[in-house]
Amino acid sequence: MSAAEVTKPLPRPQLRGLLRSSIKRNLISVAITITTAAVLMKFVHNDGRKTAYAEFYKNYDIDKEFERMRKKGLFDSCPSD
């Protein structure tokens, strides 16, 4: 077998519609990435913060906190002990 029989000509490159097809492919990948990031942000970050705030304010006593700060002398309008 000679070298001419083994080699085949290369296919012609796609010149028309190349930008449109690459933009379409990129938009689809960006849409999937953004949707995934938004869902992860909601479930991991936002819901975690909501539960942390709910847990903090479940046991928070504002009068006890005020008395603690007043005794330290942090307020100018209230005398400290």
User: Residue ranges: pLDDT <50 for 5 or more in a row?
Assistant: none
Q: DSSP helix count?
A: 3
Biggest sheet layout: none
CATH topology grouping of the domain at 20-72: Cytochrome C Oxidase, Chain I
* CATH arch. level architecture of the domain at 20-72: Irregular
Q: Which CATH top level class of the domain at 20-72 fits?
A: Few Secondary Structures
Span from first to last CA?
104 Å
Outline type: rod-shaped
Radius of gyration: 33 Å
CATH superfamily of the domain at 20-72: Mitochondrial cytochrome c oxidase subunit VIc/VIIs
Binned strand content: under 5%
Percent of residues in helices = 55-70%
Query: Order of SSEs, N→C?
Result: HHH
Structural class: mainly alpha
Subcellular location: Mitochondrion inner membrane
Keywords: Membrane, Mitochondrion, Mitochondrion inner membrane, Transmembrane, Transmembrane helix
Pfam families: COX6C
Family: Belongs to the cytochrome c oxidase subunit 6c family.
